[in-house]
Every structure is written in C-alpha cells, then in structure tokens.
Design goal:
Blueprint (H helix, E strand, L loop, with lengths): L1 H18 L3 H18 L2 E3 L4 E3 L3 E16 L23 E2 L13 E11 L4 E10 L1 E7 L4 E3 L15 E11 L27 E5 L2 E5 L2 E7 L5 E5 L5 E5 L8 E7 L2 E7 L5 E4 L8 H14 L4 H10 L1 H4 L3 E7 L2 H7 L2 E4 L1 E15 L2 H12 L3 H5 L5 H9 L3 H11 L5 H5 L3
Parallel strand pairs: 3-20
Antiparallel strand pairs: 1-2, 3-5, 4-7, 5-12, 6-9, 6-19, 7-12, 8-9, 9-10, 10-11, 13-14, 14-17, 15-16, 15-18, 18-20
C-alpha cells in the first residue's frame, strides 16, 4: 500500500514539475504535494533522492549543478594530475581551506569545479547545509562556512587514502525572497558571476565581520575517486566510451575543436558501452551550447540555471581539443558528494556534468607540431591541461616518451611548458 502511494506521488511530482514552468508556481505545487505526503504518512520522492516527509519544508526547493573534470589516460580511465592550480579564476572574496599550501601540489583524478546550490522559497526561512567529498578535500567556498574539515597542516595529505574526506557546513543560511541583491564583486575577470543570473532566492550568512550576501552557496574541491565513465581511443581513431558504474549514463556529448572549426556528437543514454566516431568539424558552438542546455533541463534544472551553468564554462568547455561531456548519474553524485539540508526541501535536484579531456591522435599531432615550432599560441590553447596531456602522451610507450622529452627540453619549448605547470 505504501509503495503504491509513493509511486502515485512520484508520478504527480513528474507531472507538476514539467507542467509549471514558473518557479513560484512550481514551489507552490511542491508545497501542496509535500503537505499531502505528510498527511498520508508516506515518503515523498524528488528527482535525486528519497526524503522522509516529516523532515520536509514544504515551501523550499533546492537545485544544484556542478562538474567533475578529469583526464583520460592510456586505458581511458581518469589519471592523476595536478587539478589544484590555485584560485586565480575566482574573486578575492572567495574563502579557502586553511593549511592547504600543499607540498608539491595536490594530486588527484578529479577537479570538482563550481558546484553551486540554489534555493527557492516564497518566504524567509533558515536552513543548515552540510556537504562531504569522498577521497577529497573541499578547497574553496562562499559564503563563509561554519566549519571546514579536515583542519590543521594539510601539506602532506594524500587523497589516495580511503579515509580522506573533506566536509564543510553552513549552520544557518537565511533565505530572503525580498532580500538585498547587493552581492560582492571585485575587478577580477572571472566566470564566477555568471551563476548569479537565475531567479533563485537571495541568501545571507552572518559572520563575525558582518553579513555575506549571495545568490547561491558555492564550493569546489579536488578528489581521487574513479569517475563512472572511461573514454579510450581505438586503433581506428574512434572513442570507446564505457559505463563503469551500475547506473545508466543519461546523456553524453563528444566535442572537438580545431582552431575556429568545431564539431560534436550527442548520444545516450548509455547502459554499457558505445563507440563514437570523431565528429566532423562542421558544427557551431552556439548549437552545441543549446543542445547541452536542453540536456541539463531534461535532468531537472530550470532553464535559467542550465544557461548559467553553460555560460559559466563557455571559455573552458568549448576550447581547443577533444573532450567528452556526460551527465553524472545522481546516485553516483549522492554517494561521492552526500548533501544534507535541514529541514529538507520538498524537492532537491542535483545535476552534475562529467568532463573528460581526451588525448586524441589529432591532439597529439597538434601539440608535437607546436612544441617543435615553439608555437606558444597553440600550446596556450590547452591551458592547465597541457602538462597532463603531455604526461598521458609519454605514458603510451618509451618511444613516445623519448620523443616528447626531446621536444619538451628544447631550449625554446621548455619555458613555454613550465609556465603552465
């Protein structure tokens, strides 16, 4: 009997969230649904998780998006690199994990980039939030957190240790529908601000130095967990994509850019494995952005949230090279990055995009040619991924390693590479 009721509520929820596009109407609908669930004494389903009706705030909705960035090695699986490359791309007001001046850098398989958590509420209310990262550290956040763990000297921390877990918490986040939108801003050229362009409820956190206002809760980190997808280049130059987890991968996009020419291929859902041919370079970035936004909306984000996410990463996602984007299964996100909100929202949606940089034969040739010609402009297009791509190329064979090493140590090439470490 209880299971039947749960299924009915789940079906009603799916109808309501697709029927009501206006955020205020959607919040009202979800509130009525949660109240009905409480009366029935059953569980209410959200897109991403099961929430006990007794802990639900019927007026609150939470939506989160973020990315898991990795680099495919010789076998197609995420390899170790130095994803902790500083915070030059963030505003100065963003706070950082103390003691994180890591000796030799912080090596991991994943850069968890810019998760942002939005709230929607028709009335002022307060929630507490806690998030943990398995086999990782949460290294930056805003507004100020009540607690960040681990603490102390972290210079020798190893993400490979199964017991390493980063955790942050906000004990009192005030949601204010008519609150101030005088959010902090500095002169830094950063993608951070694009995430504010939504209809989410403004929030504030009280600190010892005063109130901090923002449109969302922001955090990011570094981890060493295995991602749920592998992407290996076949002998014929195609990409073999394998699902390494139990849950279906809802959608994937293979993207390629060479200079001003781009191409992409959309596929999914992925249950086991598929082979993708290199897309022809006849596409448009605008079309790719539109298709990606639609994919995010289909997973539960509001249209303005999806647009804000794509806009945030426009300079990185659509740059030179080859990469695979995939929707991370929600069950995987919840296991790696458990999120607790108290009281729980009536609906919580978490949509994460996995990004895997692929070292394709075309990328290898482009980098080798650029190194030989001391072409700083071309090498600069690969940015922070240049060194791990070079390492992946050298890992393929001793012959390839010697070839790259010779180019790497050429008098004019070495400084070009070194400055991007």
């Amino acid at each position: 009997m209880r299971l039947t009721r749960c299924c009915r509520i789940s079906a009603i929820l799916e109808y309501g969230t697709s029927r009501f596009k206006n955020p205020s109407l959607r919040v009202l609908f979800l509130g009525l649904l949660a109240s009905a669930a409480c009366t029935a004494g059953v569980f209410a389903f959200s897109h991403s998780q099961l929430v006990h009706a007794g802990s639900v705030d019927a007026d609150v909705t939470a939506h989160e998006w973020g990315t898991f960035t990795s680099i495919a090695g010789k076998q197609g699986r995420a390899v170790e690199w130095l994803p902790q490359d500083g915070s030059a791309d963030l505003p100065e007001f963003v706070e950082h994990l103390k003691g994180s001046d890591f000796k030799g850098g912080l090596r991991g398989t994943v850069r968890m980039e810019t998760p942002v958590l939005y709230f929607y509420s028709p009335r002022a209310t307060t929630v507490s939030v806690q998030v943990s990262l398995s086999k990782g550290l949460i290294t930056e956040w805003y507004p100020h957190v009540s607690q960040a763990r681990p603490g102390g000297n972290l210079r020798n921390v190893s993400l490979a240790n199964a017991h390493t877990e980063g955790r942050i918490s906000w004990n009192a986040v005030r949601l204010e529908p008519v609150g101030s939108e005088d959010f902090p801003r500095d002169s830094a050229d950063t993608h951070y601000y694009a995430a504010r362009e939504t209809s989410a409820t403004p929030l504030l956190v009280n600190t010892a130095s005063g109130e901090q206002h923002e449109k969302f809760l922001f955090y990011r980190g570094v981890a060493a967990f295995p991602v749920p997808v592998s992407a290996s280049v076949t002998s014929g130059g195609d990409l073999l994509v394998s699902n390494l987890g139990d849950a279906e991968i809802p959608g994937l996009i293979l993207f390629e850019r060479r200079g001003e020419r781009v191409g992409y291929r959309v596929t999914g859902p992925l249950g086991d494995a598929t082979t993708l041919a290199t897309p022809g370079l006849t596409g448009r970035v605008e079309a790719m952005r539109s298709d990606l936004e639609q994919m995010l909306v289909s997973q539960g984000l509001y249209r303005d949230e999806a647009h804000a996410m794509v806009e945030t990463w426009r300079d990185s996602w659509f740059g030179e090279g080859s990469r695979l984007f995939y929707i991370v299964p929600t069950s995987f996100v919840n296991s790696i990055l458990p999120l607790t909100i108290d009281p729980a929202p009536a609906q919580t949606v978490r949509v994460f995009v996995g990004r895997i940089e692929v070292v394709s034969p075309t990328t290898e040739r482009e980098i080798e040619t650029a190194l030989a010609a001391h072409d700083e402009a071309t090498l600069g297009k690969f940015g922070r991924f240049l060194n791990p791509i070079l390492q992946a190329m050298m890992d393929k064979s001793p012959k390839e390693a010697r070839k790259i090493q010779q180019l790497f140590t050429a008098p004019s090439a070495a400084p070009v590479v070194a400055q991007r470490r």
